[in-house]
């Protein structure tokens, strides 16, 4: 049986006492904040999975400190706020780092860190080209792949813009 931590969104609960780093245990102090009223229902990982099922890449932004939050969490890792809102990424980014992983039994695959245009860095893989050909700086776009345990965010290379050919006009 699952237990819900938050009874009603937007509420805060007073505690009987709380530990303070400045003054030790203080009677009647402390507060537990809960998610805002417009937060999607469910654990952050479940909400993220629903975004992927819809073909979108969801991320969170803290309303208090404006930090981008990815992988989805209950609290902002920067300021500790629970006031996180969901947004959708455009899915375009650049490979920040990559490595090819060779296994005994199969083809090599890559593990890549991708910097998205929204300011998020996420770990994934780049598909559509051999693992050894994934390069730092390559422009990629987001796609969803259905795997045994559900939808997964992957990236595929974007078409490189063609450079205009130099015309041979006589100099004046």
What do you see in this structure?
- With 172 residues, the protein is mainly beta.
- The chain folds into 2 domains: 31-89, no CATH class; 92-157, Beta Barrel (OB fold (Dihydrolipoamide Acetyltransferase, E2P)), CATH 2.40.50.
- It is 6% helix and 39% strand.
- It contains 1 helix and 12 strands; from the N terminus they run ββββαββββββββ.
- The protein has a 5-stranded antiparallel beta sheet with strand order 10-9-8-11-12. Strands 6-5-7 form a 3-stranded antiparallel beta sheet, covered by helices on one side. The protein has a two-stranded antiparallel sheet with strand order 1-4.
- The longest helix has 10 residues, at 44-53.
- The protein is globular and about 60 Å long.
- 16% of the residues are buried.
Largest sheet: 5 strands, antiparallel
CATH topology of the largest domain: OB fold (Dihydrolipoamide Acetyltransferase, E2P)
CATH level-two architecture of the largest domain: Beta Barrel
Measured as a percent range, the helix fraction is: under 10%
Topology:
Blueprint: E1 12-14, E2 17-20, E3 24-27, E4 31-33, H1 44-53, E5 57-62, E6 68-69, E7 84-89, E8 92-101, E9 109-116, E10 121-124, E11 139-147, E12 150-157
Antiparallel strand pairs: 1-4, 2-3, 5-6, 5-7, 8-9, 8-11, 9-10, 11-12
